[in-house]
Design goal:
mainly alpha
């Protein structure tokens, strides 16, 4: 089963740049004062690590839009801090095309 979400390339690139700029402010790179390393150097060092984080954020934003809830709400569901309402569980099951009983099904590996 697949869930297709279209994220414009510019949106992804803008989010990547914004996240890398955040890292740039705090990064300690040898030969540079803290926060003064060039963005391209930061990109080379951290880009692969940041991609997954940015994609997760963008997917959560799209899911939040589709369900008409906040990004924080989706994040809380992922963390297990809160659970969605019954009507939202129904909407999630349709969005992801899975049975509603499987929304919170967890498996433990032994």
């Amino acid at each position: 089963q697949t869930l297709k979400i279209k994220i414009p390339a510019k949106t992804f690139a803008d989010k990547m740049t914004a996240r890398l700029e955040q890292i740039q402010k705090e990064a300690k790179i040898q030969g540079f004062r803290p926060g003064k390393a060039p963005l391209e150097m930061i990109r080379q060092k951290y880009e692969n690590a940041v991609k997954g984080e940015v994609l997760d954020d963008l997917v959560n934003e799209e899911v939040a839009k589709e369900l008409k809830v906040s990004n924080k709400t989706v994040g809380n569901w992922e963390k297990g801090t809160t659970i969605p309402s019954a009507s939202t569980i129904y909407a999630l099951s349709h969005l992801y095309n899975i049975p509603k009983d499987n929304i919170f099904l967890k498996t433990e590996s032994t």
